[in-house]
Design a protein that fits this description.
By secondary structure, the protein is mainly alpha-helical. The chain has one domain (3-183). The chain has helices at residues 8-31, 37-55, 63-67, 69-87, 101-120, 130-151, 161-181, and strands at residues 3-4, 182-183. The longest helix has 24 residues, at 8-31. The two termini are 22 Å apart.
Amino acid sequence: MKIIYGSPREKAFLCGAYLLAAAATTGILLRAQLISLPYLALPLYLVICAVALSLLPVGQFPTTFRRGGLYRTLPAVFLMGAILHASSFTFPAKPSVALPDVFFHFVEFFALGLLTARMVAPATERGLTLRSFLLALSIVLGFGLADEIYQGFVPGRDPDGVDLLVDASAGLLGILVYPLLFTGPSEPS
């Protein structure tokens, strides 16, 4: 069963995903004993994103409103902000989190691929066009490259080609999965 773009169910799904990310991030930071402001600001940011998304109107406006504007772009932009915030972290020499770095890159960029495809081409019955696919892919690849370059300026972090490859692969997979999960809004009769 696909999620209908612009429906209250989709909005609940998006808000829930941000709240789940906030809870998971909090758990990881607490387990790693990173209990200070730059670190704990990330889960707070994710909760604020969920609240902001919950306040956006859905379902009561014409399809053209839902296909454009804030409802279409904010989820992807919020996630980009969260990724940049996480990229600014300097971790201890040996973090106590057992998950590898590539796992986090994969999850972040898979979600970014989904949200970017949603941003450039809200779901329709025919799926993504080639133009929408290429636009979404170039946004994800460009952001992944910019993120790795940015990490080169953060003390204790280095840009990594493997991370960029994982970012690109996960983003591509997210873009390809998007039409399988979402469908266009139903037109009023």
